[in-house]
Write a structure and sequence with these properties.
With 265 residues, the chain is mostly helical. It is 76% helix and 0% strand. Helix 4 packs antiparallel against helix 6, helix 5 packs across helix 10 and helix 10 runs antiparallel to helix 11. The longest helix has 28 residues.
Amino acid sequence: MSVIANKRKTAFSEFERQAISLCKFTEERLRKVPSRYKKFINPGLYDPVNRAAMALIYANEQNGRTPEGQERRTAYFKQAVRLLVGQQKALFAAWNVLGIDEDAARRWSERVNRVIALVWGVNGWKQEERPMIIPLPTKKMGRLEFLHNMAELHRYTYQKIGHAPQHCKDTISGQIAGFVDTALAEIVLANYKEPTTKKEAEERAKHLDKAMQSLNGMQRPLLALWLLMDYSEATMNEWAGIIDAELKMLAGLKKSDAERFKSLK
């Protein structure tokens, strides 16, 4: 990200420096994304970190000694945090497609969380309310079949839409990517923490519901792509079979959860 010419001699605060560093880090990592996947992955990561960095620069330019300036400053800080936290789904998608292991994903997430933590501290907001980006739990995904199957479905789907015609990528392929990215994110978030309260169990159930809704929603644009691409019967059966298997596992998980967590308060 280029710094505006007349600001180059300005002393940047730590949160600004870390945000600009995150921009550079993100750009370097996204160079490794294969060209056929860039349209689906890169905008959801590079655009937010750049916009967040600019919001933090603008925040520091506000006069915090006046009520109006403080209000604008706070608004920019909140915008930056929303943009950074909003990357979670796109990060899961990138990490899974690129085959990034859990430790590398953790180092990436720590860079984002460092910026969020600095902003949170500057504003004196409650630490227990600070949001965090979580890494893709690839170790757990290797152990739990429904997580492993979802990761495989996600990669398989990207392989197919990555080779679809360019004219499909703004419409049908983009819709499919959105649905499968959401399904992956919701399943990971559902399993991030073992519920210890009734509220947490309800949140887990909501994540699983959203994942199932996304997998079901994905099937209509998927059918349109199949008709356009004229895939073989074997390919269509394989793709549909992975989706159906995931939906059955999630339905079974929801049923077992209802019994498992029914006593939580």
